[in-house]
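Subject: Sanity check before I submit

Could someone independently write out the C-alpha cells for this chain? I want to compare against mine line by line before I put it in a report. The sequence has 401 residues.
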Amino acid sequence: MIMPVTTRNVAIVGGGTTEWGERDATWKDLAQEGGKATFDGVPDVDPEDIEGLFVGTVQPERFSYQSHVAPMVAELLGIEVTEMTARTELACASGQAALRYAWLAIAAGQLDTALVLGVEKMNLGRDYVPEMQSSMANVLDREFDGVNGLSAPPFFAWYAQRHMHEYGTTRDQLSLVAAKNKSNAAKTDFAQFRSEIEPEEITESAKIAPPLHLFDCSGITDGAAGVILMNEEKAREVTDTAAWITGSGQSSMAGNSINNLPSFSGWPQARKASQNAYGQAGIEDPLEEIDVAEIHDCFSISEIIEYEELGFAERGEGGQFIEDGRSYIDGDIAVNPRGGLLGCGHPLGATGVSQALEVTRQFQGEVERERQVDDPTTGLIHNLSGSGSVHSVMILDSDPR
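---
Independent answer below. Compare away.
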C-alpha cells in the first residue's frame, strides 16, 4: 500500500471549458478557447503567473497533423513557461496524466503554479470517417488487435457479454446508466448531448456491437478544458473553495494487447489504482466517504464495472447498484453529474481535465442548480485507457487534510 503523501499541499483553484461537440474549429482554436475560458474562470491568475504548462492530448498528429503541441499552446496563450512544459499522451487518460504530473511537480516544490489544458479535435467531416475510425483503432495494439477490427465498440461489447454471463447483468441495467448520464448532460451547458432520454430509447437505438446499442456509446467529440493548480499558500490567496488533491493511483497490470488482459468481466487494475489513491487520501469506505464521482463511462458497461472495482458495489452487483438508484445525483454517491462521457462527449485529452473541473465546481457550488450535489466535500475522478489495461484514479477534497 502506498503511504500518504507528505509533501506540499496542492489545489485546483478553478478553470474553464469550451463548448463540446462537433465544432467548426481547429485544434489551435480549441486550445485558445479553452485557455481563455480557464483564465476567465480564475480571474486572479494571469498568463504571466504560470510557471508550468501540461497539455493532455492524444492524436493531434493524426487528426490535426501537428506534434510538439505544448510549446505551441504556450505561444497561443501568451505564456512564458519559465520552469516546465510537457505534452502527455495516455490515450483516454491523457488529461488525468497531465493533472498528475502538474500535481507532483508542485508537491515536490518544482513549481508553484501550473496550467493543465486538455484538448482534442476529432471531427474531420463526413468524408474522413474511415480515417477517424482507423485513428481510434491505433489506441489498441495495431498489429495484433486493431487490424482485426477490435476498435472500442466490439471490445467493450465483449466485457458486456461476459459480465452478463457471469453475473446476470441485464440489458435494462445498461440502459439505465446511459439514460441517467444523458439526462444529467441535458442540464450541463457545454455538453455535446443535451436531450432528456428514457431508458427505452437507449434499448431501441441502433445496434452497434451486441449487446451495445448506439446510445450506449460515447461520441466523437471536439473540445477543451483547463484547470489551474497552485501550492497551498498561493491557492489560499485566490479562493476559499479549492479542490485539494489528496490522493492519486495508477495501475497497469497488463500490456496493451488484449490477449494479456487478466479478465473480461472486471478491471483489477482499477481496483489497485483506487486502493492506492484511497490509501493516500485516508479513505476507508469510498461509498460512505465520497460524495461525487466522475468515472469513465465510455460505454454503459464501463460504469457498471467501475462501480464494482472502485468499491461502490460488490463484484457482480454493479447492475443492481444502478437499478436501485444508488448512483443518481440524490443517491448514495452522485456518479457523473455532468453527464459523463456518454452525455458530455469524449474529446480524449480533455476528458480527465473536465472531470476534475466538474468536481471543483461542485465544491464551489458553481454548476447548474438541477445537478448540484448536496454539500459535497470529497470527490473522485477515474479514467481507463487503451484496452482497459491502464486505470487512473485521483481523489479531491474540499479540505487538504
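---
OP: Matches mine. For the report I'm noting this point. Residues 1-5 have pLDDT under 50 and may be disordered.
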